[in-house]
Amino acid sequence: MFDLATYQALLASVDAATTTTDKGDRFEELCNYLFENLSGVSIEGRDSVTVSEEIDIVLWNAQLEEVLRPFDNTILVECKNWSAPVGAPAFDSFISKIRRRTLKTGIFIAANGVTGDFLNSNAGNGAIDIIKSALGEGIRVIIINRSDLDAITSLDDFRTLIKKRYCGLFLHKPFNN
Fold first, then answer.
1. CATH number given to 4-169
2. Inter-residue contact 142 to 107 (CB < 8 Å)
3. Three-state secondary structure of 85-139
4. What is the pLDDT of residue 175?
5. How far apart are CA 54 and CA 47, in angstroms?
């Protein structure tokens, strides 16, 4: 069951982390906490390493949560607690992980968002342009940033955020809408 005090302590532990590894681990723990509190969602993999790549979080989605019904039964989640926005190469790598597994949905949680501008393309130089291309293939990835995480005070806030980000993809407003 979601507990605001626990969630806020996890946010504080992200801020208190001092090493790059610790920052990444605390950020993933925070994200895990949110997902594991959703009905019918279980974490089936964390930091799963294959020969060529790592997947931060693998979720099983039994589709009990209305907001996750448009998502695949298996959802890949990427967590980036970087000090700058994530650029196109890292975002494209995540899209490729989804594509290789013939999935259609994913969640990208980047503390400082991603590069680019969805409405005013920056000549293919940003992660937002990767979103546009992926949408053309039927691949949908929502983006959640640290400001979004800071604003969560209940599980319903998280559900609303997922819904807004998912619908925002089709309105060309994948974040801050």
1. 3.40.1350
2. yes
3. CECHHHHHHHHHHHHHCCCCEEEEEECCCECCCCCCCCCCCCHHHHHHHHHHCCC
4. 57
5. 6
Q: pLDDT digit string (tens) for 115-135?
A: 876 545 555 567 777 888 899
Q: What's the rounded Cα separation, in Å, for the pair 35 and 66?
A: 14
What is the β-pairing status of strands 140-144 and 105-110?
Answer: parallel
- Angstrom CA distances, 84 to 81, 102, 112, 115, 167, stand at 9, 30, 6, 9, 25
CA nearest to 113, candidates 124, 103, 102, 127: 127
89 touches 124 (CB < 8 A): no
Q: Whole-angstrom Cα distance, residue 61 to residue 48?
A: 17
Q: To which residue do tokens 């998280």 refer? A: 158
Name the strands in the sheet holding 41-49, side by side, starting at the edge strand that comes first in the sequence: 41-49, 54-61, 74-80, 105-110, 140-144
Per-residue pLDDT, 177: 46
**What is the model's pLDDT at position 51?**
62
- The low-confidence residues of the chain, meaning pLDDT below 50, are 119, 177
Model pTM greater than 0.85? yes
pLDDT at 174: 59
82 and 49 Cβ atoms separated by less than 8 Å? no
